[in-house]
Amino acid sequence: MTPLALINDEAVRCSWCSTAASAEGGPVNAHPLVNTMTTAIAPADLLRFFEATGHAPRWLDFPSS
Description:
alpha+beta; two-stranded parallel ribbon; two-stranded antiparallel sheet; 2 helices; globular
């Protein structure tokens, strides 16, 4: 699922889970609700999007092997 789909979850029943590294790295590439396109979003802007939609992201930290 694209993180941008959370805009359609007005009841806030869904949550976004991703790796902690994606919150600290470069731009996040996501489909803007159309699977034939991709847009790049800075992690800080994606966090603002989550806040604006009322969704608290869950960051997962996977150990390196």
